[in-house]
Amino acid sequence: MSAHPLAAPLLAGSRRALARAITLSESTRADHETQAQQLLSEVAPHAGQSIRVGLTGVPGVGKSTFIEALGVHLADAGHRVAVLAVDPSSARTGGSIMGDKTRMPRLTVHPNAYIRPSPAGGNLGGVARRTREAITLCEAAGHDVVLVETVGVGQSETQVAAMTDLFVLLTLPNAGDELQGIKRGIMELADVCVVNKADSDPKAAVRAQTELRAALRLLTPHDAPWRPRALRASALTGEGVPEVWAAVLDYVGEVDVAARRRAQTAQWFDELLREAAWRIFREGLDGNNLRTLRAEVEAGQLTAIQGVAALTAG
Ligand code: GDP
Q1: Structure confidence at residue 101 (pLDDT)
Q2: How far, in Å, CA of 127 to CA of 279, rounded?
Q3: C-alpha 64 to ligand 1 mean position (Å)
Q4: Residue to mutate, 64, 65, 172, 182, ligand 1, most ligand atoms under 8 Å from C-beta
């Protein structure tokens, strides 16, 4: 098979080729999907060299501002930064919580940066798949830092944690109130917590940091390979932002990232396999039979186990 025409410019670092490649991978047209898979398998051997950072926090915590500050800091230092967004609201509504407002104006025009908004449409599983593919494409195009932003309101955090090397949680100085708003599950995913907007109320920020530290200590098992850190920063003034990156580098130095990625890949394979197995199984099913059985289970005439057995018994 001849090489996909986007492969060479993509590998040479063309931003335009990268944008087109991601668009291709987001397309649901069957011929595009085939092309995208061809391209991905061609460039995948050149991917994998970036630090993949997931980043979340409730709307308004300052994610855009923080990513802009961190991104510009890194891009100025010569890193090639890619920013991807996962926003399940765009999957549901076609619109997006992150919105179309001009986010990250300085990073957007930085020659070392590439920013891609969340793909609209499709279910969360589809968004996760396309984000994984976008990470691969960004890496193949030479990006050595990939920041994956998520809106911090639910399921997408788990998905993003399953495709990144570490997870950064942004919080606010009024942590007492805020900790209740953050789902415990999200705290458990965090490798680095940052009290943002420390400039707005420095004393409260110190208190919040102390509380976060205590909460993280409680959540972290004694034998964990990494003790999650709590830091303070101001995305607005830039103070504390380099320290957050230093913590990311410490993490990458201390934790076996390659092992984490291997486990993530295996888990992803299992997930795709489950999906494919279900699709194949379902295609072979008599839809009326399935509906009747489900109705019987719902009505209590059959137990769920009996219903499944009736469908799967050879
Ligand atoms: P997002 O919804 O999490 O992406 O939050 P934004 O980045 O859009 O920020 C929400 C608001 O908080 C904006 O008005 C920002 O200017 C402001 N903001 C963000 N970071 C800081 C900060 O460190 N200090 C202060 N004082 N304001 C901030």
Answers
A1: 46
A2: 18
A3: 7
A4: 65
Euclidean distance between CA atoms 158 and 186, whole angstroms: 8
Give the DSSP letter of residue 197.
-
Coil, helix or strand for 6?
A: coil
Shared-domain flag, residues 162 and 27: no
CATH number of the CATH domain containing 12: 1.20.5.170
Task: Tell me which amino acid residue 237 is.
Answer: T
Whether the Cβ atoms of residue 145 and residue 51 lie closer than 8 Å to each other: yes
| Measured CA distances, 44 to 36, 41, 142, 238 (Å) | 12, 5, 12, 35
> Is there a domain that residue 107 lies in?
yes
Measured from the CA of 67, which atom of ligand 1 is nearest? 7
pLDDT in tens, 231-262: 999 999 999 999 999 999 999 999 999 999 99
**Measured distance CA(252)–CA(219) in Å, rounded:** 21
CB 294 within 8 A of CB 307: yes
Do 206 and 294 have their domain in common? no
How is residue 45 annotated by DSSP? G
Predicted pLDDT at 151: 76
Q: How many other CB atoms are there within 10 angstroms of residue 111's CB atom?
A: 8
User: Do 87 and 57 share a domain, yes or no?
Assistant: yes
Tokens of 151: 């809106």
Residue 66 Cα to ligand 1 midpoint, Å, equals 8
Q: Which domain holds residue 287?
A: 267-312
pTM: 0.90
Ligand 1 atom closest to Cα of residue 103:
8
Same domain assignment for residues 72 and 105? yes
